[in-house]
Amino acid sequence: MKILNLKILDLDNEIIQEIPFNETGSNFIFGDVTKPNSKTETSNSIGKTLLLGFINYFYGADEDSEISKEAIENWKLIANIKYKDEIFQAQRIIGSSNFIINEETISINEYKKRFQISRALYSKQIFLNDRSSLIPAYDKNPSKEDIEQFLSMINLDKFVSPVDGYYVAQNNIKKNKETKKQLLELNNWKQKDIEVGLFYLEKKIEELREEIAAIDSNHSEVEISSQKDYAVKEYSVKNEELKQLLNSKQKLELENKRLSVYMKEAKSLNDTAKNIKKLYEKANYELPELVIKSLEETEVFYKDSILDRKKLSTARIKENELFIEKYQKRILQLKRYLNNIDKIIQETDAFKEALIIYKNLNEELQDLMYEKGNLDNMMKLNENIDENDIELNMLHSDLIQLRKDYDETIIDYREYLFDLVNDLYSEKVQAFFDVKVRSKHQQTRPIQINLKIDGDSGEGVGTVRKRLIDILIFRWGEKLDFLFHDSSCFTGVDSRQISKLLEILDTVSEETNKQYIVTLNRFQIDKNDTELLDIVDKRTVISLSEDKKLLGFDF
After folding, report:
1. Contact call for residues 66 and 53 (beta carbons, < 8 A)
2. Of 182, 362, 460, 519, which residue is 20 to 30 A from 338 by alpha carbon distance?
3. pTM
4. Closest Cα partner for 465 from 150, 136, 141?
5. Binning pLDDT at 50, 70 and 90, where does residue 39 land?
6. Partners of 6 in beta bridges
């Protein structure tokens, strides 16, 4: 996939920018920054990286909160893209994941499917900021997928399957070892005692089963089980009924107690009112009209409310007492019945003895079987670890053989990068590239990719190594036909090396008929490098500055 043209339209459908792109060769999004050290104006605000983000949208990127801001929400991006020698017009509205392809609206997933976009792969060639590791990955410890994709991108595809199996076997070993460690700690076992312990345990289980069989000869398991089940079930059912009756009886007794207290309090209230009135009459003291009225109202309240409730409470108490009496009779019946069951069990000494022995032996057997299950799991874990280790040996042998098969290809890459490094530096600096199969290990990952640069002690050497790997993939890879770099991918690199790297990338993109898009600041270029300046001048698709920003305003 290649982008040929991009339009940015505002809410009024006014074209803010229209940018053509070279189908092959370099495309510079140039930051003509004249004040790189200004505290108020920097190259980060003119829109270079933002434009690269817009382009990334047409390569299937999800919505980015750093781009989809309120200031440009619902603006349109319209691009002409080339896919399999056919040109399509694609439109995407900022803030939406849908696309319009030749007037047909489709989802981002449908878009990816139609243009066979693998974001996992594309992210290895689209860098809006620099990556962390030598292998294209944004993590210092590349994942299995990162390793496999890198190997595939430099045409070492046959490595992928055994590497995948190697990781699976290693992960299984790790998981089994962690489970094994937990079992050892939980049961306070020692690894060396597992097999011996399992043997002794099996012998003990065999003895117990023989004892249980002896009991079965006198009291069949069916008889014991039947009697046991009947006694336990009958006792359980009746005992549960007894508990419920006792609970219900207790609740009724508590309710009666509360009602009795209430009735006493009600009587006390009435007596108090009467007594007050009698005291005043006995003293020949005339009560005030207001007090007499209050006392009369109290009596009326008492008759209308309290006496009615007292009547209801008296009826409730009598009703409860009937139920209590009924419950009590049933409780006595149940207690007698349960006592009879106990007597039957106690009187049947043979049954009782057999049941107890049978029960104890079975409990001990179950405990031993549980322990045996844990020991069997330990043995199984050891077997799994051994099996996965054998698989690792086989896969390791496959990788060793594949490494020999790929020897010529890797030597070609080694020579290519060695020559590039010689071209990058004026002084004697050398490079050595290798794809190495490590010694077989249950945890250490099998493939090591290394690009060693000797003679450059500068702080930017790590970045140079990553850019050389990008060039290697760009030159030899057959999966993708593009590479995008943000200017941050050259941070810390000497301007002379930046010039050489960009010249190499321009040459490679022309020779391989691929598209290279890069954002670049003027202050990153060696001003005396007329060759690069000429390339930049010819290949710049848009020039931005503090006075000529991508959207016309700070974003």
Report:
1. yes
2. 362
3. 0.68
4. 136
5. very low
6. 19, 79
